Amino acid sequence: MNSKLPDTAPKDRIFNTAVKLFARHGFAGTGLRELATKADVNLAMINYFYGSKKGLLKEILDDFFAGYIAIAKQELVRTGTLHERLSGFIIHAVRYFDTRQHSLLIFITELPLDDQEIIEHKSTWARQMAAILEKEVCLPLNKETGRNIPATCIGPMLTSLMASRFLFTPLMEHVRGSSTNPVDVETYTNIILSIFLPTLEKENERSSHHGMKQ
Amino acid sequence: MNSKLPDTAPKDRIFNTAVKLFARHGFAGTGLRELATKADVNLAMINYFYGSKKGLLKEILDDFFAGYIAIAKQELVRTGTLHERLSGFIIHAVRYFDTRQHSLLIFITELPLDDQEIIEHKSTWARQMAAILEKEVCLPLNKETGRNIPATCIGPMLTSLMASRFLFTPLMEHVRGSSTNPVDVETYTNIILSIFLPTLEKENERSSHHGMKQ
DNA sequence: TTAAAAGTTAAACGTCCGTTTAACTTCCTG
DNA sequence: CAGGAAGTTAAACGGACGTTTAACTTTTAA
What we know:
The structure is a homodimer. The first copy, chain A, is an all-alpha fold. Chain A has helices spanning 10-25, 32-39, 43-50, 53-76, 82-99, 101-109, 116-145, 151-167, 169-175, 185-204. Helix content of chain A is 73%, strand content 0%. In chain A, α4 crosses α6 (101-109). The longest helix of chain A is centred in the middle third of the chain and has 30 residues, at 116-145. Chains A and B meet through α1, α6, α7, α8 and α9 of A and α1, α6, α7, α8 and α9 of B.
């Protein structure tokens, strides 16, 4: 964390360090002086590059959500059975979460912000995700099952389930004895697939086994 | 929020107001002066009753987790099939989350705190929950399925899934048009049951329909 | 080569932070 | 009724907060 990253530009050093600190201490709990020191930049550079502390948070959230939406579009908006597309989305989303654990934590834990500006900002992204899920997942699913589950319900469920491993990791490391190991990410993904997809199989009466693509 | 609660004792007013404010602005984002004003008490009373700001957070977390553990013990540690016990736990836990939405948000969002003192405090509770899940759910489940899923994996998954509705509520209210309504809590519970329990049914080859107990 | 642009710096701005103090009032108990 | 405990108050403590300023250096481009 404190180690110099002399090759990267100051703006990127601020960004990367902020991601780690916001995830660890929370947005409100992170001071700009600590951030400047850890990123090895002058305090004033933060406001110079990002306008304000909140502007920095916005860019971090944008960066994370843009990648998340891209995966949803790539995996869900294409040909294939619902089962195939949904399992592809889960596999890639979990993999994405794994590589962006800090950003994921910020996205989750900084959710209930009272700040109208940030809430509006996040809603714009969430609305896009909900639209994709509604059209590509909920609509065909509800047509077959006869139920009426909206994307604003199934979306949070799916995201929460996929994020649970990374959300509770810092706690679980203390819970587990140092001897026992956590399940690896691929196993974790397979568990999620086995939880979410049998529901579809059961409704569709279509038999298929969900192997992770290599 | 600002309305006076003249009948309750100052100590309780501090507690109840803090739960709302910590959930809304986060722990670090809430100032004791704002809390004192909203709770209609003198600033010094907070440290008088709770020792420190962190002491107040601890009591809030204790209060929430004690109730959560109580439900786990009551519903999981008793006779009955795994299916019956697990569905009972889910039904009561979701109901509990619904009545303690603010505390739930604090429990979730204040998780990645770097503070060693709080982390240790939470780990004590999480360890109890993991022990119950390990013995009552994972052990019989793994014996039947031949898999080896630890409680430190399935616990966070279950909690995250049940919490998703309340975690993303403030965002989803902005996403939904004001016309459409969210699913009610009972429907939400049934969706979770239909996601989590078919996995068991499939493995156990036991047919049963999961009606919510009234 | 030179002037504008971009990057970087130390210092200070006013504000809010969590906590403590000491004096005061209220309440309970012997 | 006396006296001590519990509750309550206003005020102040030093420090950290996000942001701004103006001066300085480096880079860019005409």
